[in-house]
Specification:
9-stranded mixed β-sheet; 4 helices; 210 residues; alpha+beta
Length: 210
């Protein structure tokens, strides 16, 4: 009888010890996995910046080219530019090979026609849909509040920190700036022309040091 009690006590202590070991090991593994994931994310961003990095002069040249296309292909584009508080011009957004379905690019924020900073765009395979291998994006901030919100958030994400309305002006129509109600609007160009059936949801913009 005494021997049976000792064996039962031994089994109980052993089970408690095993349970604590599993909990502690699981907690350690979870922390290690989170740390590893964070490091992998940082490494991926670093690789993207190195592979697709542009100088300030290159970004400015691309901005001029994209704006000239905007003025040439969209009626009323210059009037919209005059009404907007700022323009974020992202030229040559490309499919990034570092992660499946991802897009990456760099561009310039202009306030009053002058450079106010340089930004990158990073987007994973979720949300953001372009359907093209390369595109140019012009985002117009129509209110000071929307612009200030964008500038104060490092890593401003469409659909989380703010919404962006894609402007549909098919059939050669002219932009009517007086009828625009959205605080942030965008125009997306593929090599073939202005795109309408697209979403910028999931696109994240981060200010660069240049």
């Amino acid at each position: 009888m005494q021997a049976c009690k000792k064996r039962t006590l031994y089994k109980t202590v052993l089970l408690v010890f095993i349970g604590l070991t599993v909990v502690l090991f699981g907690s350690f593994s979870h922390h290690a996995d989170a740390t590893t994931a964070a490091q992998m994310g940082a490494d991926a961003k670093s690789k993207l910046n190195r592979a697709y990095n542009k100088t300030a002069a290159q970004i400015k040249a691309d901005t001029i080219s994209t704006l000239n296309r905007f003025y040439r292909e969209v009626k009323g584009a210059k009037e919209l530019t005059s009404s907007a508080k700022a323009l974020l011009v992202m030229s040559g957004i490309t499919k990034a090979g570092f992660f499946v379905g991802g897009e990456y690019g760099q561009g310039e924020l202009q306030v009053g026609g002058e450079t106010d900073g340089y930004y990158n765009l990073i987007a994973g395979s979720y949300g953001l849909t372009f359907g093209a291998q390369k595109m140019d994006i012009i985002i117009a901030f129509m209110t000071e509040e929307a612009l200030n919100q964008f500038k104060k958030i490092q890593g401003w994400e469409v659909g989380v920190d703010g919404n962006v309305a894609i402007i549909d002006i098919g059939g050669g129509k002219r932009i009517d700036t007086t009828s625009l109600k959205d605080p942030v609007v965008a125009f997306v160009f593929s090599p073939q022309g202005l795109m309408f059936d697209v979403s910028l949801k999931g696109a994240k913009f981060t200010k660069l040091k240049k």
